[in-house]
Amino acid sequence: MKNKHILFGICGSFCNHQAILKQLKKLCMDNDVQVIVSENVYTCDTRFFKHDEFLKTLETISTHKVWHTIIEAEAIGPSNQQDIMVIAPMSATVAAKLANGIYDHPITLAAKAMLRNGKNIVFGIATNDGLGISGVNIMKLLSFKQFFAIPFRQDAPFQKERSVVAKWELLEESLDQALINKQLQPLLLGSKQ
């Protein structure tokens, strides 16, 4: 993937943020990447990152100011500058909002703007409830024309039997396939154990 304008949405599932940074660095080597984050990512300190340090890292890697407001998300539609969007990690809450047309959040409104412009969205799910009630929303997204998933697996089937996490190393390949309206296969990868 080269010379693309990518909108990169980052939600909770804070334990996956370090892995996401690695993928963001790869994308930024040959593409222009604008990051947009959820309110929680923008404001919450966690055991993984202090929010201000994480945001500074994102801005250093992408060379753009991080977007984080509804106002910034709303402007994405009229400007129509991005070729594709990735949401990684995507939390179960954001999956539920998108699956049910709820756009009260920077990431979901950004996604709505991309859909308005006929652009595809690749999501990397990370949730402890992916094989529970949240699975309904994940499958619903996969049934929509413009949504594609980074292949995912059970990350700890004997400790957290409902938990699923995308294989982050497949992010760029998933984007390449989504740009030609294809889902990277296989989508279901089994488990790590």
UniProtKB/TrEMBL annotation:
<dbReference type="InterPro" id="IPR003382">
    <property type="entry name" value="Flavoprotein"/>
</dbReference>
<dbReference type="InterPro" id="IPR036551">
    <property type="entry name" value="Flavin_trans-like"/>
</dbReference>
<protein>
    <submittedName>
        <fullName>Dipicolinate synthase subunit B</fullName>
    </submittedName>
</protein>
<dbReference type="GO" id="GO:0003824">
    <property type="term" value="F:catalytic activity"/>
</dbReference>
<feature type="domain" description="Flavoprotein">
    <location>
        <begin position="4"/>
        <end position="165"/>
    </location>
</feature>
<dbReference type="Pfam" id="PF02441">
    <property type="entry name" value="Flavoprotein"/>
</dbReference>
